[in-house]
Amino acid sequence: MIGAVSLKLKRVPVAEFLSESSYIFTFIFPLALSMAVCSGIGVAGGLFATVIACLLISVKKTRLIMPVFSAYLIVAETFRQYGAATTSAAVGLTGILLIAVALSGFDFKKVVFKPVLIAVMMASALSVTVLETTLYFGIGATGNTVGEMIESYRSLGFHPNWRGILYGTIVMVIMITYPRKFKKADGIVRAPFIGLAFSLLLNYFLNPADMKSAIAEIGTYSFSPSEILFPAFKGDMSFIGIITSGFALFVILAYSVSIESNEGDDYAVTGGANLLSSFFMGAFVPICSGNHKKISLTGIPAAVLTIIVLVIFRDVIARIPVASCAVILIVGAWQSVRWGEIKKAFIDVPSLACLIAVTAFMLLFGAVRGMLFGALCSFLCSFLPSAKHFLDEK
């Protein structure tokens, strides 16, 4: 997915330029790689999405990126249920809808009801945790919804791979402690990148390449054009899957743009980027709107470095533990929770009812149907008197 971006460029000093380029790369690369691997889409498909994200990112030092994880859940669920063709077409439909909003001038903020967003935020963090724990622990459970995954856990039992847990836990500790102990350094090189690199080095020593791997690793991948270009034209497509997933993605991406600028240019560029991403098997571009409204050129070195690392050092990337990628998503999701927002869902009965209903629905029926149900609730509740209170908030 991609969040709000702007068409204006800004100039920065050399030192700041290098610092921001480093931040962009170490911010996007581990997140995009983890999403590509854990969703099943694969590293090759994630490459194009990552490059697009690096070029269009318009924010530095953003921590609260929950819309990214919500969109990831939608994409991962769609891919697992319908395959690459449906997923790519759904992302393309999302891009078209965002462009339509830009052309229409519709004020998306008017149909946003904050308690619904709080519910989606909490449900997304819980969902990512439950769905990715199987990769963290190496259990081998399967499921598209929280309920399905818990049932699979009950069926298989918890028989974890302790080496994978070691790698994942190290990443978790680094992601929690590094930003607190080294705040300035975290503004240049992000904690998930440090954790991923450390677990990779550890895996090299504890799990030699000439021996059978004791854990799940990313593994080899190919950049063959026949495999990654125009996935929407390959394989069977589900019309229902395209419509439901496309609209679900549109809802969360439109919200992401609306909270940053709510301007037509940002909706258009966001839509265009996702439309382009869908052509190259980049089913999501993990960038969210943030505090800066201007694009700089600092994303170019980050994009080039991404290509170099994934293409030239593919044998090294192949040794990254999957458990480490899963933990990056789990911890990242919880670090993106806006804890101060939760209390706002308790101002009246309708707000609390929305919080409970949408959270439960998303956990029980999955991210796609949960997002569509939340969108319906948000639209209906936007006519309530309390909705004006949320709309007037800065």
Write the layout of secondary structure elements.
Elements lengths: L13 H26 L3 H14 L9 H17 L1 H21 L9 H24 L8 H11 L5 H20 L1 H4 L4 H16 L18 H4 L10 H22 L3 H16 L19 H14 L1 H4 L4 H14 L13 H17 L1 H15 L3 H7 L3
Oligomer: single chain
- How large is the radius of gyration? 20 Å
The overall pLDDT, averaged over residues, is 85
Number of helices: 18
Helix coverage percent: 55-70%
| Major sheet | none
The string of secondary-structure elements, in order, is HHHHHHHHHHHHHHHHHH
**Total beta strands:** 0
Class per helix and strand makeup: mainly alpha
Low-confidence stretches: 1-7, 288-292
N/C terminus separation: 25 Å
Strand content: under 5%
What overall geometry do the principal axes of the alpha carbons give? globular
How does this structure look, described?
With 394 residues, the chain is mostly helical. The chain has 18 helices and no strands. α5 packs antiparallel against α17 (367-381). It is globular. The two termini are 25 Å apart.
Give the gist of this structure:
This protein has 394 residues and is an all-alpha fold.
Question: Tags for this entry?
Answer:
394 residues; globular; disordered N terminus; 18 helices; mainly alpha
